[in-house]
From TrEMBL:
Its EC number is 2.3.1.29. This is 2-amino-3-ketobutyrate coenzyme A ligase, mitochondrial. CDD domains: KBL_like (cd06454). Residues 67-408 form the Aminotransferase class I/classII large domain. Coiled coil: none annotated.
């Protein structure tokens, strides 16, 4: 006889190995269902393989001939600049491949401190702190700075890393409508009961190519006793007269409290992010920001490349000044052809198409014509707002831009996106 209800358990007993296999089979079924749903929605994202250096002219696996790249964050063309590459090689030779440590144990070299000081000077701030990425900088900031007594007010279309960073903190959370200053003011009025109020916005919004109205944001922040945080990933290096970003572009450098940005776009394109702002804030982040405390230091080669990129940028603004005319050339020609281009005066030029499958198919046909662009669809952008995001680089020639427009017109007519 089985004691108690043990006989019932025996009926359902499965050997341990078989149980594990059953759980794995269940997981596979769930995952395949999710993947099939993505394919069915037309939002599957494939990865094309580049077989050359990054730049305006690249080579792509499986595609013959040279390809024009119009979708990199390589705004200033510094990813393959010979001086940037040489600086990376020198840092690799002198300081090694990596630190095998986080910063506070034995992972801080002189080049890390020098780059942080250079970033602070560039942005005209008191201090700066490096992270493996700007995603990490955004993940580390809000949790370390804000408490349940505080409030953060965030634009609804802020980058995912800002959204995730805010989720980690215990502050009261307010979301205002995109670029809607009346809604921000209403939220600031509601947030007056909190200790600190931090307005968080992208400087330039990466999916739409529009720019935050920082003058009005700073005016409201001053009126209601709030601080201003700006993510400058798609502005650092090329917006503003000397490439300092949207705060320089709009004349509010002395009114923005905190800037987070990246080394992985205009400033060499390798990796790395940072926070720059008041000295005491940076000191607090070194003590409390979890992505900083628990992540390996930036590799010396990355630090060397970024440092040289900043040197080039601070030495001359010639490259920066070439961006506006090239951006306007692409936007005006595309709009004249009948396309809708989101945003204004930013090198991010989203070609709005609406349908995810249309965006994906047009991008594939653009590649056949020698133009590398990518379709963006949900969940990267809202449903029904699929697009091909074109990005202009200082290294694109007028001929490159015209060839891209011609390909868009041809492919657009082929797919019925143009009459």
């Amino acid at each position: 006889m089985w004691p108690g209800n043990a006989w019932r358990a025996a009926l359902f007993w499965v050997p341990r190995g078989r149980r594990a296999q059953s759980a794995l089979a269940q997981l596979r079924g769930i995952l395949e269902g999710e993947l099939e749903g993505i394919r069915g929605a037309g939002t599957w994202k494939s990865e094309r393989v580049i077989t050359s250096r990054q730049g305006p002219h690249i080579r792509v696996d499986g595609v013959s001939g040279g390809i024009l790249n119009f979708c990199a964050n390589n705004y200033l063309g510094l990813s393959s600049h010979p001086e940037v590459i040489q600086a990376g090689l020198q840092a690799l030779e002198q300081f090694g491949a990596g630190l095998s440590s986080v910063r506070f144990i034995c992972g801080t070299q002189s080049i890390h401190k020098n780059l942080e000081a250079k970033i602070a000077r560039f942005h005209q701030r008191e201090d700066a702190i490096l992270y493996p990425s700007c995603f990490d900088a955004n993940a580390g900031l809000f949790e370390a700075l804000l408490t349940p007594e505080d409030a953060v007010l965030s634009d609804e279309l802020n980058h995912a890393s800002i959204i995730d960073g805010i989720r980690l903190c215990k502050a009261h959370k307010y979301r205002y409508r995109h670029l809607d200053m009346a809604d921000l003011e209403a939220k600031l009025q509601e947030a007056q009961k909190h200790r600190l109020r931090l307005v968080a916005t992208d400087g330039a919004f990466s999916m739409d190519g529009d720019i935050a109205p920082l003058q009005e944001i700073c005016r409201l922040a001053s009126r209601y006793g709030a601080l201003v945080f700006v993510d400058e990933c798609h502005a650092t290096g090329f917006l503003g007269p000397t490439g300092r970003g949207t705060d320089e572009l709009l004349g509010v450098m002395d009114q923005v409290t905190i800037i987070n940005s990246t080394l992985g776009k205009a400033l060499g394109g390798a990796s790395g992010g940072y926070t720059t702002g008041p000295g005491p804030l940076v000191s607090l982040l070194r003590q409390r920001a979890r992505p900083y405390l628990f992540s390996n230091s930036l590799p010396p080669a990355v630090v060397g490349c970024a440092s040289k990129a900043l040197d080039l940028l601070m030495g001359s603004n010639t490259i920066v000044q070439s961006m506006a005319a090239k951006t306007q050339r692409f936007r005006s020609k595309m709009e004249a052809a009948g396309f809708t281009i989101s945003g204004a005066s930013h090198p991010i030029c989203p070609v709005m198409l609406g349908d995810a499958r249309l965006a994906s198919r047009m991008a594939d046909d653009m590649l056949k014509r020698g133009i590398f662009v990518i379709g963006f669809s949900y969940p990267v952008v809202p449903k029904g707002k699929a697009r091909i995001r074109v990005q202009i680089s200082a290294m694109h020639s007028k001929e490159d831009i015209d060839r891209c427009v011609e390909a868009f017109v041809e492919v657009g007519r082929l797919h019925g996106a143009l009459p």
